[in-house]
Each structure stands twice: as structure tokens, then as C-alpha cells.
Design a protein that fits this description.
There is one protein chain. By secondary structure, the protein is α/β, with parallel strands linked by helices. Helix content is 48%, strand content 15%. The chain contains 10 helices and 8 strands. It has an 8-stranded parallel beta sheet. The longest helix is centred in the N-terminal third of the chain and has 24 residues. It binds zinc ion (ZN).
Length: 273
């Protein structure tokens, strides 16, 4: 389970959010893990420009909240956290949050939460929780460490096939809300092929059931799966209309998905004919 969670964390590290969008894990660290320290130092400016370019593309596509590229199987150092947050700010983010994996050791997570508050983050964004207990422990550590509002999302993969998804995700999300989370929700995937008796459960149906029973806003950050940006955006826009207050993308999504989502939401807000 731990190895599965770690692989998932690494996979999600390259994913995206929208009005929440994340670049996640320190890319220079991942890219340069086998390089010597000199080449690592040489590569950092180039990789920082690359992260900045991705952030800017997401802001231009309509993202209001950027998740700094801090997500990973290990916590960012204080210098990495500060640099990552600075790139999100420089890209023009209206809001910038520090993204962390819920599976980090709680002591390290708490220390990083304190550092994020000191570095001026607007919020902590804890994601890809593999089970409810992991999410509760991570939230407790984050809330105990500082004053930042905390958003926390469960990985869709936590859903066991064959059960009704609203019954699986509803209780742990309600628990996280009562524990003090400012925003709760779901991220990553797979999200589009589950349901009782193997039937596809529409994202909007799940969102409507969850959001109507929660006392805090629901966040939804699904991966791209095999969908085109247009098909992905249509499903996520339906979910937004059904009660998801914060919407964005995870693995495989990028600026084209966010642009398509922005257009879907604008078209539905101003229907023609
Ligand atoms: Zn993901």
C-alpha cells in the first residue's frame, strides 16, 4: 500500500489543478536526481523558467488559484518552498497555495505547514489521500501547525469498485470538514467508470450528492484520463454546475483543458439563443 501510494504521489507530481492548477513536485529535484551538484545548479534556472512558463499558461487559461510545485513523496525544503511559491506569485496567481501529499510523515508535514505560513502562502492544499485515516492525520498535523486555511482531497482511487461512490466518499469528507478543513474534495483518477453494478457514475451526480451534504465548499480536481480537453471540460463544467465550488485538473491536464473549462463555464453562464 505504501509503495502504491508513493508511486501515485510521484505520478501526481506532474499533474495539474485550475482555477486550481498545480505543477507540483520540485521538478528540478526530479529531473536532476542522478546529476552531480554542479549540473544540478546549472539546471535550476532553466527548470525554474519552465515551471514559471507552465504557471503563466495556466493563469492565461483562467486559473485563479495556482498550486506551487511543492507536491512530492518528500516535503520541499524551506528554500524549495519559498522558490516555488515565488514562481506562482510571479506568474500572476490571484491565490497561491502550497501543495503537499497527505502521506508525508506528520512531523515533516507540520514543519512544512509552518514554513508555508511564514513564506506567505494563501493556503495549504493537501491532496491524493489514499485512505480516510491518512487524510485525518495529515489534516490534524496541518491545522495544529499554523493559521493557514487547509484544503484536503481524497484520491479517486480510494473508491473501491462496486460501491456507491457518494456513500464511500461522503463520510470521510464530512469528517474532514468537521475536523476543520476549509475545503474538502476529490482529485486524480480514475473517476469516470465506477458505480454500482459496473454502471458509469456521472461526475455531476456524485458532486451533487456530496456537495449538498457538506458544510464547506467541495473541490474537484480530476485527471485527464483518456478524454480530450473538450470532453474533460464538459464533464468538469457539469460538476461545477452541480455544486463543485473549486474545479481544476490533476494528472495529464494542462492549459488546453483549463481554457476549454473556462469557455464551458462562460458559455453556460451566458447561454445564447
Ligand atoms: Zn493526479
Amino acid at each position: 500500500m505504501a509503495r502504491l501510494a508513493q508511486r501515485r504521489a510521484q505520478r501526481c507530481a506532474s499533474g495539474s489543478p485550475i482555477r486550481a492548477r498545480s505543477s507540483s513536485t520540485p521538478r528540478w529535484e526530479r529531473r536532476c536526481s542522478s546529476a552531480d551538484s554542479t549540473s544540478r545548479k546549472r539546471a535550476r534556472p532553466r527548470l525554474a523558467r519552465e515551471v514559471l512558463s507552465i504557471h503563466r499558461a495556466h493563469v492565461e487559461a483562467g486559473a485563479e488559484l495556482l498550486l506551487a510545485n511543492t507536491f512530492g513523496a518528500r516535503p520541499p525544503t524551506r528554500a524549495e518552498l519559498t522558490a516555488a511559491l515565488s514562481l506562482a506569485r510571479k506568474a500572476g496567481a490571484r491565490y497561491a497555495a502550497v501543495a503537499l501529499w497527505t502521506g508525508l510523515p506528520t512531523a515533516e508535514l507540520a514543519e512544512t505547514a509552518r514554513a508555508a505560513a511564514g513564506a506567505g502562502a494563501d493556503a495549504l492544499w493537501l491532496e491524493t489521500a489514499m485512505h480516510a485515516d491518512q487524510a485525518c492525520r495529515a489534516l490534524e498535523a496541518a491545522l495544529g501547525a499554523g493559521e493557514l486555511p487547509v484544503a484536503i482531497t481524497l484520491a479517486f482511487s480510494a473508491f473501491p469498485a462496486g460501491d456507491a461512490p457518494a456513500d464511500v466518499y461522503g463520510p470521510p469528507l464530512a469528517q474532514l470538514a468537521s475536523q476543520g478543513a476549509s475545503v474538502v474534495g476529490l482529485n486524480c483518477g480514475p473517476w469516470d467508470a465506477h458505480g454500482a453494478s459496473g454502471r458509469t457514475t456521472e461526475l455531476a451526480v456524485l458532486v451533487r450528492a456530496l456537495s449538498s451534504a457538506l458544510p464547506v465548499p467541495l473541490a474537484l480536481k480530476p485527471d485527464a484520463g483518456a478524454r480530450t480537453p473538450g470532453a474533460w471540460a464538459a464533464a468538469v463544467a457539469d460538476a461545477a454546475r452541480s455544486g463543485a465550488a473549486l474545479v481544476g485538473g490533476c494528472c495529464g491536464t494542462g492549459a488546453p483543458h483549463l481554457r476549454a473549462l473556462r469557455d464551458e463555464l462562460a458559455n453556460r453562464a451566458n447561454p445564447r439563443g
